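2024-03-11 09:14:02 INFO receiving multi-entity request
2024-03-11 09:14:02 INFO entity count = two
2024-03-11 09:14:03 INFO echoing inputs for audit
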Amino acid sequence: MVKPVALLGGKSALYSIIAIAIALALIPLVLGYNMYYVYLAAQVVLVTIMVLAWNIIGGYAGQLDLASSGYMALGGAVSGLLLAFYNVTPWLGMPLGALTAAGLAFLMGYPTFRFGVKEVWYALSTAALVVILQRVFWLIYGSTEIYMPIHRWSWYHLRFSRYEPLYYMLVVILLVTLWLNIRIKNSKLGYYLTAIGEDELAAEALGIDTRRYKLYALLIYASILGFVGGIYVNLTSIVSFRMFDPWLGIVVAVMGIIGGLGSIAGVFMAAVILRTLEEYLRSMFGATIPGIHLLIYGLLLIVVGVLKPEGFAGFLKYFRRRLARGGSGG
Amino acid sequence: MIDPAYVTQILINGVLMGLLYSLVALGLALIFGVMDIINFAHGDFVMLGAYLTFLIATYFLIDPTVTIALTVPLFFLLGIAVYKAIIKPVLGAEPLIQIAVTVGLLMFLRNLALAIFHAEPRGVPYTVFSTPITIGPITIPLSRAAAGAVSLAVLYIVHLLLTRTRWGIAVRATADDREAAALMGINVERVYYTTFGLGTALTALAAALIMTFSRADPYLGLLYGLLSWVIVAMGGLGGVVGVLASGLILGIIESFGMSLISAGARELFLYVTFLVVLWVRPRGLFGRR
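2024-03-11 09:21:47 INFO inference complete, emitting structure
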């Protein structure tokens, strides 16, 4: 019989998930149920989900995918348009969104991996995908913004007068994504993906069907993003072509790299710290210096790339080593 | 139904844009071909060049085309500085690290522009090339014609530089085999920084031409960056000729798409072409390593 603890990937993983769950559950209380802060907290959790989902394709499998915002917006558009036009509940819309995103990921991923599109070409084709989706959406719906139903606060519409219910739903999805990350890391799939990320040719020589496993990673990643898209549109209340934001896709990958590819703790920290820093900088300088947070991300990325390619995870290791040596060595 | 004059007009528009696109991509093709470095920030040098052109043209009240006397040498030096500071440490590193560093540079440049100029597009108030040429039913804006002609001339000059000079031979030898070139006494380091400098200087030239009919805004970077990579993907390492052919093909596809379907879907035609080329001809239309 498999113990539940083993299913979670060991005791320490279980404890950290419980600790994170408690901390995230208490955040609205700490923030005094202030609507604006809870909204921001939801945004931070959302980006953390995106980066953790990205970690599966980008961190483990080493494929620099820049289309996370595209898959999320597609799932969100499916769920949001069904709700706005046909009054279909997001409880149905979100799985449909996940399916649509996964379907698109398959249509993109199959030929991409089949024809050996790699490295820079993979990154570019995924960046192009977000722009393509954005233009197609624009051709169909134009630049008008489609609003979610406003005065129907209910669990059926998943629309609330406060942000806490959506925040808690995002927290649950975050915990599931975290669990998936840990599960995958300690499974056959995870070992295969890590091998592909380290050296694809060597992995293939060892008999790993690299195409198939890269496709699995892509499908898991796209499904998570397609699913969470439904909550995203209910959080912002708007469906528009602007959701298909190539910049968000780049930022998610940047956070994953700064966090240290494949390191769950590093990626988690990078997303939380950088997204919170972003809000802080925006509230401080947003009016006078727009985009200052991205300017700082840019500098951080250059520094990490040139000095510490292992990212935050590398810095964590470095500090731990220094502490162990009593701060004498480096 | 199909009016030959209309089709000719679309074709001419496409060819003129295609020539300019080739010029924009030429620097990237050189850098990628010679140094094997993945530079995501190429488009943002174009964006930076456009703003610099705007600043100089409005400050000195001169034509944007005259500003190249200042911006091109400046960008050559900027290119060398960027090479020494952040490109050299990641030469030969994993592709992911190179992408990360140049994406960092891209975000830095783009948001620096956003911080200084905010999101408002800036255009130069006048240029000598503002009157259109009319031949029968066909109208060609003089600015576009001039941009196309200058692009073609520069492509030819770079082609001559690469094939007829000692520097060009050194560059091509280094691109073929870095170690062998070094053993033959070629100063590889000098080849690298001059190539990066030239590649960057070419973006300033392209930016000045773009400013004669378009405006500078922080979003130019993503468009021209992706566009350049599309051309390099199509042209492969087919040299200047490959870049020119790919640029023309893209310009014509874009022009027909914009005229016959929707002008707002410009990027759609470019990127769908890109995906199809990657899938069908992974080595580019003109061969790639």
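2024-03-11 09:21:48 INFO post-check: The first helix of chain A runs from residue 4 to 7.
2024-03-11 09:21:48 INFO post-check: Chain A touches chain B through 45 residues (CB under 8 Å).
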